[in-house]
Specification:
mainly alpha, 4 helices
Length: about 130
Amino acid sequence: MTMTSERLAVEEAIREESCALADIADRLRGRVPWAEWPVHMQEHLLAACFPSSGNQREHAKAAGLRWHLFRADPPQMAVANNQGRVAERIRADLIGLVPLGCGRPPAEGRLPEPAGCKRIGVWATSMKSVNLNS
């Protein structure tokens, strides 16, 4: 590979990671039901939340991501084997893009409005609980 082709390959990989990260963040913020997610996006998020390999730092990032998305009740899901760059990027950046607790489904099967957040153009978190249903 020449330097130009290597650079293009790296740029394409970064674009793929960024697109996957943005798509997952949009689905979580939009509270899209899990059943409506494309399988490859489900696999990317599962791989990020439940790494089957990696070092202690990646496992710590995964634990932080699970806590951020699901709070104290992480889902019981089959762990995907899809490891790699996309899962690492999701572990590194998704927490900063989605509201706290946005991965927990309410009774009707949709992702919830996170407790302690209210919508003002974008999600803004606060330490105080806000009743979003009133």
